[in-house]
Write a structure and sequence with these properties.
- This protein is mainly alpha-helical and about 375 residues long.
- Helices cover about 70% and strands about 10% of the residues.
- The strands form 3 sheets. The protein has a 3-stranded antiparallel β-sheet. The chain has a two-stranded parallel sheet with strand order 2-5. Strands 3-4 form a two-stranded antiparallel sheet.
C-alpha cells in the first residue's frame, strides 16, 4: 500500500493486500462480531465448542503470521517482500473501506445476487489458491522427498521496453511450490462446488496468515491510526446503519472463519454456524506482528510486547463473546479488540519506561534500506 515501496508486487503480497481491502469492506464479522444463524437454539456444549474453536483458529494465524513476518521483513527476495502500510495509507483506509462497502450495498440492490456471488467465487478461488499455496510452502519444504528434483521457476510480468521497462510481478517458485499449488487448487474446487465450511476455513486461515505476515505497519503510530480509524468505521456501520448487515448476508466469500454449533448433533454436515470475520484477525494481527518485530529490534532476547498484545487480543475477543452472549446481540469485535490491543502494550511500555522508544521505532522496507546504503557508499567514495 505504501507509495514509497519500489519493489514489484509479489503474487502472495498482492493477494494479501486485495483480501485486506475486501474483508474490511464486506466482512460479516469484522462488523458484526461473533454471530450465529438466527432461529437456531444451540446446546451449551455446541456453543462452547464453536466459540473455543473460533478463538483457537483466530490465534493460529496471528501467532504464526507474526513469527513469519520477522523473517519476511528481512527478506531480499522480491517475491517475499512485505507490503508496507504508511500513516497516509492507514488514514485513508477506513474511507476507502466505507466507499467500497456502500458501493457493494448499491451493487447488490441493483444487480442479481446470484451472478455477483458467482464472480466473487471465481475471484476468491484464485486468491485462495495463491494464499493457501504460500501458507503451505514452509511445511512442504520440510517434507518434500529429496529424491525428487526441485527445479526453480520465475514468473515475470513487465511493462514497457528498454530503459522504461518496469516490473509488475516478479515471483520466484520451485517444484515444491507447484505441489502446494495443486493441493490448494483441489481445496479451491471443493470450496467453489460445495461451499463446505472446512474448505472455507482453510482459505480463511490462509488469507489471515498471509495478511499478518505480508502486510507490515511502518511504525506504532501508523498502527494506532489504522486500528482506531477502523474502530470508528466498525462501530458506525454496525450500529449506525443496516448497510453492513445487508452486504454481509449477500456476500458469499471465504472472508470469515466459521464453526458449526450443531456439530455434535449433525457432524461435518452441520449448518448452523458461529462466525468470526477475518478483519477481526488481520487488523489486530498486523499490529501484534509489528510489536514482535519491535521486540526483536530491542535485542533483549524477550518478546514482552508481543505476548502483552497477544494476551490483549485473547482478552478482547473473550470480552466480545461474553457481551454478545449476554445481550444476545451481535457486536463489532473491534470495539473491544482495539482498546485492548493498543492499551495493553502502552501500559507495559509505560511501566518499563520504553514508551518513547516504542513510538520512535520505524521500519524501513528492504528495498529502501538497500537504496539508502548505496547512497551512503557513494557519498563515502566521493569524500575519499
Amino acid at each position: 500500500m505504501s507509495e514509497a515501496q519500489t519493489a514489484p508486487a509479489s503474487v502472495p503480497e498482492a493477494a494479501a493486500a486485495a483480501v485486506l481491502e475486501a474483508l474490511n469492506s464486506t466482512d460479516s464479522n469484522g462488523t458484526e462480531a461473533l454471530n450465529a444463524t438466527a432461529k437456531f437454539v444451540a446446546t451449551p456444549e455446541g456453543t462452547a465448542l464453536a466459540y473455543v474453536s473460533l478463538v483457537l483458529m483466530a490465534l493460529l494465524p496471528i501467532f504464526f503470521g507474526a513469527l513469519r513476518s520477522v523473517s519476511c521483513s528481512k527478506s531480499k527476495n522480491a517475491s517475499e517482500m512485505p507490503e508496507t502500510i504508511t500513516s497516509r495509507d492507514a488514514a485513508r483506509f477506513p474511507i476507502i473501506a466505507s466507499c467500497t462497502l456502500f458501493g457493494l450495498y448499491l451493487f447488490f440492490k441493483v444487480f442479481s445476487q446470484e451472478y455477483i456471488n458467482m464472480l466473487l467465487s471465481l475471484y476468491f478461488f484464485v486468491l485462495g489458491v495463491l494464499a493457501l499455496s504460500h501458507t503451505m510452502s514452509p511445511l512442504m519444504s520440510r517434507i518434500f522427498p529429496t529424491s525428487i528434483p526441485n527445479k526453480q521457476f520465475q514468473l515475470l510480468f513487465t511493462q514497457g521496453s528498454g530503459d522504461n521497462k518496469e516490473e509488475i510481478v516478479n515471483y520466484e517458485f520451485d517444484t515444491k511450490n507447484l505441489v502446494c499449488l495443486v493441493i490448494s487448487s483441489v481445496v479451491g474446487v471443493w470450496y467453489v462446488l460445495k461451499k463446505h465450511w472446512i474448505a472455507n476455513n482453510l482459505f480463511g486461515l490462509a488469507f489471515a496468515l498471509n495478511g499478518v505476515e505480508l502486510l507490515h505497519l511502518n511504525n506504532v503510530s501508523t498502527g494506532c491510526i489504522l486500528l482506531w480509524g477502523l474502530f470508528v468505521y466498525d462501530v458506525f456501520w454496525v450500529f449506525g446503519t443496516n448497510v453492513m448487515v445487508t452486504v454481509a448476508k449477500s456476500f458469499e466469500a471465504p472472508i470469515k472463519l466459521v464453526f458449526p454449533q450443531d456439530l455434535l448433533e449433525k457432524g461435518l454436515g452441520a449448518s448452523n454456524f458461529a462466525m468470526l470475520g477475518l478483519g477481526d484477525i488481520v487488523i489486530p494481527g498486523i499490529f501484534i506482528a509489528l510489536l514482535l518485530r519491535f521486540d526483536v529490534s530491542l535485542k533483549k532476547n524477550s518478546k514482552t510486547y508481543f505476548y502483552a498484545s497477544f494476551l490483549a487480543y485473547i482478552f478482547g475477543l473473550g470480552l466480545t463473546i461474553f457481551v454478545m452472549h449476554t445481550f444476545k446481540h451481535a457486536q463489532p469485535a473491534l470495539l473491544y479488540l482495539v482498546p485492548a490491543c493498543v492499551g495493553f502494550p502502552v501500559v507495559v511500555a509505560l511501566i518499563k519506561g520504553e514508551l518513547t522508544e516504542m513510538f520512535r521505532y520505524e521500519e524501513t522496507p528492504p528495498a529502501e534500506e538497500e537504496e539508502a546504503a548505496a547512497i551512503g557508499d557513494s557519498s563515502e567514495k566521493k569524500d575519499q
